[in-house]
Amino acid sequence: MSFIILLLINAGILLGMTYILPTVTIKNYTTAILVALVIGLLNATIGWLIRFPMNVVTLGLLSFVIHLFVTAVMIKIADILFSDFQIKGFAPAVIIALVMAIVGSLINFF
């Protein structure tokens, strides 16, 4: 159940960032839900395969930074996969990843 709630919140974050960041465009909330689902699936599969060796090399000291960077890369991959979702540049992807990480941490905290 928490996965579905987090998915809907991440979709809301994606949609909300279109109003804050002018370089992010998304067609509608359905596309935002699909993009959030793909980002979650990419993070769970490919993202984990990228994060694990990097965390081993850094002894887990830069875990948050690595997770943030990998999530931003997964957001850019989702940008390539969806024509209704566009991000111009890597910095907006990092900002979206940061907001998703903060909100996800707050949800897991409570």
From TrEMBL:
<keyword id="KW-0812">Transmembrane</keyword>
<feature type="transmembrane region" description="Helical">
    <location>
        <begin position="90"/>
        <end position="109"/>
    </location>
</feature>
<dbReference type="InterPro" id="IPR007165">
    <property type="entry name" value="Phage_holin_4_2"/>
</dbReference>
<keyword id="KW-0472">Membrane</keyword>
<keyword id="KW-1133">Transmembrane helix</keyword>
<dbReference type="Pfam" id="PF04020">
    <property type="entry name" value="Phage_holin_4_2"/>
</dbReference>
<feature type="transmembrane region" description="Helical">
    <location>
        <begin position="57"/>
        <end position="78"/>
    </location>
</feature>
<feature type="transmembrane region" description="Helical">
    <location>
        <begin position="32"/>
        <end position="50"/>
    </location>
</feature>
<protein>
    <submittedName>
        <fullName>Putative membrane protein</fullName>
    </submittedName>
</protein>
